[in-house]
Amino acid sequence: MATNENLPPNVIKQLAKELKNLDESPPEGIKVGVNDDDFSTIYADIEGPAGTPYENGVFRMKLILSRDFPHSPPKGYFLTKIFHPNIATNGEICVNTLKKDWNPSLGLRHVLIVVRCLLIEPFPESALNEQAGKMLLENYEEYARHARLYTGIHAKPKPKLKSGAISESTTALNVDQSNTSVLNGDQKNTAVTVAITLPSPLAPCTIPMKGGNSQDQVAVAAPIAETGVGGSLAVAVATPVVGLQKKEGGAAKAQADKKKMDARKKSLKRL
């Protein structure tokens, strides 16, 4: 996330003063969200001007300031979808104030006012949205219908931007991400610990059991891991394996039968 460290101290000081002024005395139809933690991204809500296809809509936008601001212009983007010749489908804004006509002496207030004026008077000759630009030149009524449709669907009133609100939400997001990272790290460490400690206290153990022919039989008790609700790991010890006992018992009996057969064969040879 970008922070105020990405901007020179003198620029931060000037921006802080201007943002405070915009928050206390906003331009008509424009409300700026002041983020005390990151002045490199400025958010604003722009009301659709009366008498335009954008009337009754609220459009959220952002200005991204580079490290060499104000010597280079900010980049403007609409976050709310809008049908407009000078606003691309990805939200990028095309206006000369943010391009060739930029002057370091221009402030954020001037930029925001120019962007709102675009909603009143588009410039189809320098269109980023070619469909909107062509429609505006050839059939204004069709263009206005499309613009009103977008406005009604996407530009509904939004929660108002307040001073420090963006900063608080960003901080909360960082806390959530940090907690998630710690939790994931703990889960990984737990998995490693379990993998290392299981063989020692819960290694397969032998249980002597008396079976047929007074021979000791061995049953193996192997650890069984189960994952419970919430990802917790429960470990249980298996009961003696009956199948193994039967198998070993059968092998002993077969060996005894073989000995008997060998004895009979020797007897037949003597005869």
TrEMBL record:
Keywords: ATP-binding, Nucleotide-binding, Transferase, Ubl conjugation pathway. Its EC number is 2.3.2.23. It comes from the Eukaryota. PROSITE patterns: UBC_1, UBC_2. Residues 246-271 are annotated as: Disordered. Pfam families: UQ_con. The active site is at C94 (glycyl thioester intermediate). CDD domains: UBCc_UBE2S. Residues 10-156 form the UBC core domain. One of its GO terms (molecular function) is ATP binding. It is an enzyme of class 2 (transferase). This is E2 ubiquitin-conjugating enzyme.
